[in-house]
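Request: Show me your protein:
***
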Amino acid sequence: MSPRAPADRRRRLDDYDAKEWEHVIRINLTAPFLLTQACLPLLRAADHASILFTSDRVGRKGLAYWGAFAAAKLGTEGLMQTLAEELRDSSRIRVNSPPAARRRSSPRSRDGRQRWLRNRVVVLRVLAYAPT
């Protein structure tokens, strides 16, 4: 499951209405928190468990015109770091946020091969965090 509100509508912070801001935060920050919280008892009982939060370049450094999406992804990064610290000495659960794959914005990215290669990079990055 990868909840993600559309980030394709970039704008200035003062152009957001509260309802849209709350929607983006709810999908990109609150939903991962609630899902993680609900799954923690099962993950604690597992021999090998990992929690992977999806990140984005604006989750590492806020950028102009990314507004609520950047705020949510920066929050997700903080959530991941906080949870990793809380679980570090008391659990075998690994908590990570792999770097996001850069996406092309050119028309070539619609080509099936380009999309397949991009998705393969994402899968390989996620597999790097899988337990052995």
